[in-house]
Structure of ABC transporter:
Amino acid sequence: MDTVIHTNKLTKRFGDFIAANEITFDVYRGEIFGFLGANGAGKTTAMRMLCGLSTPSSGTATIAGFDIYKQAEEIKKNIGYMSQKFSLYEDLTVLENIRFFGGIYGLSDRQLKEKSEQLIETLGMKSEVKKMVGSLPLGWKQKLSFSVAILHEPKIVFLDEPTGGVDPVTRRQFWDLIYEAVDSGITVFVTTHYMDEAEYCNRISMMVDGEIKALDTPAKLKQQYSVTSMDEVFYELARGAKRSE
């Protein structure tokens, strides 16, 4: 399998506090890789290192074949990123946001025109193109933000808590967009604290207190812990961590 993310003992310290401790894993091309854990487990810290937004304290990693220390700019050209806080400009229209970020990603005028029309058609937002993004419902904002993050057809897209705060129906619709991205050849790395969303991933890692405590397919993890849901898997991991303290 083609490895698109490789990490070895990747660590981030803030003074005496270790936010991510010796994280080691691989992600393969075309996967939906879930990075799960409770709030404060270290998921966002790890993702920021992988995206080149934060320099690791130690350890190594390659993203899309590029070294995390020496080739950060090349990494940024080959990834998309959607933060857990809504990342588009609310005082620009839908179309202005698409064109602005398309320009940042280096799309030509022709590519930008074609992709803008395609994106608007796919999302069913023809009647909203001239509306300020700030006036849109949260679910629409999230779907638009994701679509813009993959406008340049990156090899990997990083999604940080993409479905936080939206209703269950909108969450399911958002995952449909993720599946479509994977079908087009994009690898998806997604953090979430919704354990039911683990079922949508090919493989998942589970973080507790800055460390990866489990990594496998959802089915194998449930089998390993003799449980029927990912919530129960996480409970067992968290309980084991408390016993070891």
In short: The radius of gyration is 18 Å. The beta strands are 3-14, 17-28, 32-37, 58-63, 66-67, 79-82, 156-160, 187-192, 203-208, 211-216. The chain has a mean pLDDT of 90.
